[in-house]
């Protein structure tokens, strides 16, 4: 800064003297009714300089005002962004509550149709491997659950309990290869056994002459003492009959979307 002052000291001095002269001249004008020829010449010569000074002053003022406006706008923009993020998070939370309420209302309506003591539970985990089709629920032996109890949802049969802890239980889904459910075709009452095939089901031991069609609903038959009669298991999607053999092949799509399983009912049938 001092170096700049030393470098342009002559120019600064000249401008200072001109400004001082203008101030003195302006003060004298206030006390005079008429101006002299010399004063008019001075006024004409210094007018461009004064105009330039005014333009520079206005420019600096406008730039300062614009800078302050931009700073204020940026702060307001950040505030609005933060408020928008909070609003989006709240909307997501409210949407999740709405969906959960819808599922619970559906589960409660299904619960009222059952004539068997039951206990609602929430899915809190699932098998991460490809070897088993199981989920873990947040109720266990301390809540009265034991192995073998059936697990259902409004859409139909989900599985059965195979392990219990005081506050958790593991459920074997009907899509697991080791699962077996006594079932029948709702339309014709043809009987067989539903077995898991990973993502689908097979209706085994259906006699070759049994009347089974694609689209037929498969329900639990009530035999075997596991699931009560009449619960939906799935819908027939494919039928194959070979040239020989006693049985026909029947593929079934499960009624339950196990990828979206969140709340279930455990049937306390046979609870001691």
The CATH C-level class name of the domain at 118-272: Mainly Beta
Tell me the fraction of residues in β-strands, as a range: 25-35%
Mean of all residue-level pLDDT scores: 80
**CATH level-four homologous superfamily name of the domain at 118-272:** Rod shape-determining protein MreC, domain 1
* Helix percentage range: 25-40%
| Separate helix tally | 3
What is the CATH topology descriptor of the domain at 118-272?
Answer: Thrombin, subunit H
Give the uncertain stretches in residue-range form. Answer: none
Q: Biggest β-sheet, characterized?
A: 6 strands, antiparallel, barrel
Number of strands: 13
Notes on the protein architecture:
By secondary structure, the protein is α+β, with helices and mostly antiparallel strands. The chain has a domain at 118-272: Beta Barrel (Thrombin, subunit H), CATH 2.40.10. Helices cover 39% and strands 28% of the residues. The chain has 3 helices and 13 strands. It has helices at residues 2-7, 9-31, 37-113; strands spanning 118-126, 134-137, 150-153, 156-164, 169-173, 180-185, 191-196, 201-204, 206-207, 217-220, 232-240, 247-254, 263-267. The strands form 2 sheets. A 6-stranded antiparallel barrel has the order 1-2-5-4-3-13. Strand 3 and strand 4 (156-164) form a beta hairpin. It starts with a helix and ends in a 5-residue tail after the last strand.
